[in-house]
Amino acid sequence: MNSLRVQILAGDTWIGDAVLIPSDPSMGVAFAVFEPGPDYVADRHARATEQREFMEDPAALKVCDAEGAVLVCAGVDLVDYSDTLGVEGREIHVIGIKRFEDYFD
């Protein structure tokens, strides 16, 4: 299975990039280490961090492919434990990706 380079947006604001790797094709799930951009703010965009458990109403995130098309999916989840785990502690999970096989063969 291949990977997919994507941009992560909160509303219309680009907050970072990721290279998605399929983790559960049968459920349309992919994940990646999140590479934050200058407008990323963990307390606003991540559902969980070291400083707090799960936020009940996290930012609405969307994922776009290289052409700027939004990946239709059931949800996008971002957790940030980078204070403890370093850069690999920022993870993005995309679940229920429609047309999964179009992105990952």
Q: Could you write a compact summary of the structure shown?
A:
The protein has 105 residues and is mainly beta. The chain has helices at residues 42-45, 82-85, 100-103; strands spanning 4-10, 13-24, 29-36, 48-49, 61-64, 75-80, 90-95.
What would you note in describing this structure?
The protein has 105 residues and is mainly beta. It has one domain. It has three helices and seven strands; from the N terminus they run βββαβββαβα. It has helices at 42-45, 82-85, 100-103; strands at 4-10, 13-24, 29-36, 48-49, 61-64, 75-80, 90-95. It has a seven-stranded mixed beta sheet. A hairpin with a 2-residue loop joins strand 1 and strand 2 (13-24). The longest helix is centred in the middle third of the chain and has 4 residues, at 42-45.
- The helix-strand sequence is EEEHEEEHEH
**Tertiary shape:** globular
Mean pLDDT score, rounded? 91
Oligomer: single chain
Strand content: 35-45%
Overall tally of domains: 1
Low-confidence stretches: none
Strands side by side in the biggest sheet: 4-6-7-3-2-1-5
Separation, N- and C-terminal Cα atoms:
6 Å
Number of helices: 3
Give the arrangement of secondary structure elements:
Blueprint: E1 4-10, E2 13-24, E3 29-36, H1 42-45, E4 48-49, E5 61-64, E6 75-80, H2 82-85, E7 90-95, H3 100-103
Parallel strand pairs: 4-6
Antiparallel strand pairs: 1-2, 1-5, 2-3, 3-7, 6-7
